[in-house]
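Problem: given the chain below (77 residues), write out its structure.
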Amino acid sequence: MRALERPIPRRGLSRVEAAMYLGISPSKFDELRHSGQIGPAKIIGTRKLFDIEALDQFFDALPEEINQGAEDWQVAL
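Solution.
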C-alpha cells in the first residue's frame, strides 16, 4: 500500500466528522454546541475544525448508564 492511500490521523475534524466521531447526528452535535456542552471550533482561514482531544474530554465526561437488569435492546420473548 502506498503512503498516500493510508488514512492520515488528524486532530481537527469538520462538524460532520466530529458528530460522526462521537456517534451522534450533526443536528445533535449542533444542539450540544448551542447549549455550550461542546466547546467552540478552532478556525483555520474560513474552516471551522473541532479538536479531537476536546471531543474526547467531552465524551469521557458523559455519565455512564446504570445497569438495571435486562438491556434496553433485548426483546422479551
